[in-house]
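EI: anyone free to look at a 331-residue chain?
SC: sure, send it
EI:
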Amino acid sequence: MAVCDGNIRYAERLADYANERGKIPFRAVAFSSAERLREYAAKHSVEILLAGETVPAEELEGIQARQIIYLGEEKRADAARLPSVYKYQNSDRLLREVMACYDGEDWGESVPIAGRGRLIGIYSPVGRCGKTAFALTLAQVWKETEKTLLVSLEDCSGFGEMAGESYGECLSDLLYRYCHGGGCWEKLGAFVYSWGNVDYIPPARYPEDLEGISAMEMAGFLEDMAAESGYGVIVVDLGQMGRQAAEILEACDAVYMPVLEDWVSQAKVREFEAYLAGSGRDGVAERLEKLKLPSGNRPSAGENYPEQLLWGELGDFTRRLVRGGREREEE
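SC: here you go
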């Protein structure tokens, strides 16, 4: 992706942000002039050209770019320069709008961007066990070394209120595109939001959207995402999927199950383990790691909730867990 704007500092900051946050499946490069861009485009493929409104149209003529998207100086788009995104807005939102405008659907068969990523499933038949907090923390810890995405399959996650976001497209829309053969992965950045240091896809709009897809289809969706999205790690919070969770967990490379020690909770865990054994899912049972999460004080509410988790007792616990898993893989 090329960013060409009369304000080179703006172009450099936007390109650096896009590369750092990994919201787009391309490397972003900033250019101070159309002439420099023309030289680059003669030798390299340019999928998206973000062109500042102040760059004269005649200077862009002949530059080989798959699609030009203009950086508008005003919120009201110039009808002569479309598609357009408003230049002076939150960078996350700008990149989502860029990917929503990107017309990459005629690529035909999608091509893996960076090899298959690791799928990590989090599930528990026990309620109030800290599963959501652990998922948020695990995604942040992995992001310290790998490009990481959090996917929540919870019916009612509360993410919108907690993160202070009003979502446009969400997991419901991505699943619809996937199930109906639309291009998904090259436009994934249009669906990714950030909450602190957590990159995530907003959960399904309605519980019925998850009920309308089978466990087998969901497992295929997540496996394809791991193979083609360019993320090194995808953390999946399976929510309240019940016994359907087993089929999705079979697609995961690692499975974590937060548990509690009371009699009722232990009975629920034993019943799920018996179901795995009875249904022939020994592979899931072997990868499943039960966790008793720290029971210290939980962070207070607020936009920095994920950061509080990361640097609190749960963050320390999760770092040790991830480090231990890596060491076992290296042995």
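EI: DSSP finds 14 helices and twelve strands in the chain.
SC: 👍
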